[in-house]
Write a structure and sequence with these properties.
By secondary structure, the chain is an alpha/beta fold. The protein contains 5 helices and 14 strands. The model has no long low-confidence stretch (mean pLDDT 97). This is Metal-dependent hydrolase.
């Protein structure tokens, strides 16, 4: 049976994957995103929620969405500790760390390096930030999380990634120009941009972004809010 994999863009760095019927939500930040006012958080019922780190613009809606969906939450150890403090039951929290791979009903997920900082909304230490690689059927999907350009990305170039979700907004993460270099490092032609236009420091020229990716023979997708595409 062929894979049925799609992703829906919910703004900023928040995406909802559908992995053959299993819904996996990344970095839930909707309610406080002025660009995502048309997304109704009460309709989100993922089976799993993955957190790349615990900055508020990646976890603000975690307690609400987890409570209504009873989703299992996966994160690095210290961020997972913060998740438990939000009232999430131990059996609904999957903590793991760099190099670790989760084997889940929809596939496997490996935690990989990201170059950023990490604290929880209350200012506590959140552990290191991270990215994830999703192995679902024959598809390999890299979610970079918030990151600068880093040589560690070269470790992924032999995986033959199908898709890469890369931040392009600059200021807090790498910008569009470094993201082009990152795509080269990881050897992935298909890029979905994230972490741009939400706040004034990360506002970008989307026409320029498409131009620089096209010049590098890369396919950049800038999804509209609520838009879904097949992967």
């Amino acid at each position: 049976m062929a894979n049925q994999i799609s992703v829906r863009y919910l703004g900023h760095a928040c995406f909802e994957f559908n992995f053959n019927g299993t819904k996996v939500l990344l970095d839930p930040f909707v309610t406080y995103n002025p660009l995502a006012k048309d997304i109704n958080v009460s309709t989100l019922n993922p089976d799993y929620i993955f957190l790349s780190h615990a900055h508020e613009d990646h976890v603000a809606d975690l307690p609400t969405i987890q409570s209504q969906s009873n989703a299992t939450v996966a994160a690095i150890v210290e961020t997972a500790g913060w998740v438990r403090k939000q009232g999430v039951a131990d059996d609904k929290v999957l903590e793991f760390n760099f190099g670790g791979t989760l084997s889940l009903p929809f596939g496997k997920v490996k935690m990989v390096y990201a170059l950023h900082t990490n604290s929880t909304p209350d200012g506590a230490y959140g552990g290191a930030p991270c990215g994830f690689i999703f192995f679902v059927g024959d598809k390999k999907i890299y979610f970079a999380g918030d990151t600068a350009l880093t040589l560690e990305m070269k470790l992924l170039e032999g995986l033959n990634l199908d898709w890469a979700f890369l931040p392009i907004g600059g200021h807090y993460t790498m910008d569009m120009y470094d993201a082009v270099k990152a795509a080269d490092f990881i050897n992935c032609k298909n890029v979905i941009g994230m972490h741009y236009d939400t706040f004034s420091p990360v506002t970008i020229d989307t026409i320029e972004a498409k131009k620089v990716f096209s010049k590098a023979n890369l396919n950049l997708s800038l999804l509209k809010l609520g838009e879904s595409i097949e992967l």
